[in-house]
Design brief:
43% helix, five-stranded mixed sheet, 301 residues, single chain, rod-shaped
């Protein structure tokens, strides 16, 4: 059945106004064009919908039955199209974000709260996951966005820089390193160093060798979680390494962090998405919201 939206809107206009003249004016078409649309609709349906006299228009029995159902249906359609086209409503919906465990427990919660306060019709669902699982969550379609340390994307995943930050040394307030300014990587040579295992330390070692071959990194301990690093530092077992977005967690442990220089080594953090897939308006709005705020944070400069 080849019924068009123009034909249906023409019938509704006639039914509402009871006049071909007024209906044609409301649709900004000629009366002959309106008559043609009504005739086409009647031919397609195989029945008359409108009886027309010299003075007014009457709906047939079938036309009178069709009118309220069609009116409600097109009202719902117009409302749906309005929501799609209205910029103020395009940002509604659920945004699913996978983030590495440390990002999910430090940087992102406050940003999510601020975003949802300004976009009350949007909801961000945060999935905290091991670093190496962030891209896998995106690939599996479990989330729309992944946020984590820079990794080599594959043919199905694309990445874009979100922010970067320098490596920091973490130690108690009265530690001997607290009085050194500026603090250099070479100052850690006589200190037990505690780092995260895996690519955190592997990539850092590579960056240090390229930037300053005379500087070597030989961690005393490599553990899985930053909370373990900080607990060991607090117990006096060594100096920890972290990126400054972990500031709230470092402060919660009563520790302080200082940037490491000579050389300055920075770690990049990316947003991962499915290649060839457009982001939903809500997800794009979330990215547009958090990007400038993260990059403006003083400790990431």
């Amino acid at each position: 059945m080849n019924v068009t939206l123009r034909q249906l809107r023409a019938f509704l206009a006639v039914a509402r106004t009871g006049s071909f003249t007024l209906a044609a004016e409301s649709l900004y078409i000629t009366q002959s064009a309106l008559s043609g649309l009504i005739k086409e609709l009647e031919q397609t349906l195989g029945t008359r919908l409108v009886d027309r006299s010299t003075r007014r228009v009457y709906l047939t029995e079938i036309g009178a039955r069709l009118y309220p159902m069609l009116d409600a249906t097109l009202h719902d359609l117009d409302d749906m199209l309005h929501q799609v086209m209205d910029p103020s409503l395009q940002q509604t919906g659920v945004v699913r974000v996978a983030a590495s465990q440390l990002l999910a427990s430090t940087l992102l919660p406050e940003l999510i709260a601020d975003f949802q306060a300004q976009h009350p019709l949007s909801q961000v669902k945060l999935v905290d996951t091991p670093v190496e699982s962030v891209m896998a969550r995106v690939f599996a379609g479990e989330v729309e966005l992944g946020i984590g340390p820079e990794r080599e994307p594959n043919s199905d995943i694309t990445s874009a820089r979100l922010f970067d930050g320098p490596f920091m040394a973490v130690f108690p307030a009265r530690h001997p390193l607290a009085g050194i300014e500026p603090l250099r990587w070479s100052d850690l040579a006589d200190q037990p160093v505690i780092t995260l295992q895996g690519q955190f330390t592997e990539l850092l070692s590579q960056d240090l060798r390229r930037a300053a071959p005379e500087v070597s990194l030989a961690p005393t301990a490599e553990v899985s979680y930053m909370a373990t690093v900080l607990s060991m530092v607090k117990a006096g077992l060594g100096v920890g390494l972290c990126i400054p977005y972990a500031a709230s967690l470092v402060e919660a442990y009563g520790l302080q962090m200082r940037p490491l220089a000579s050389p300055e080594v920075r770690r990049n953090f990316d947003v991962f998405t499915r290649r060839g897939r457009s982001l939903s308006p809500a997800a794009q709005s979330f990215l547009d919201f958090i990007g400038p705020r993260i990059r403006a944070m003083p400790y990431l400069q």
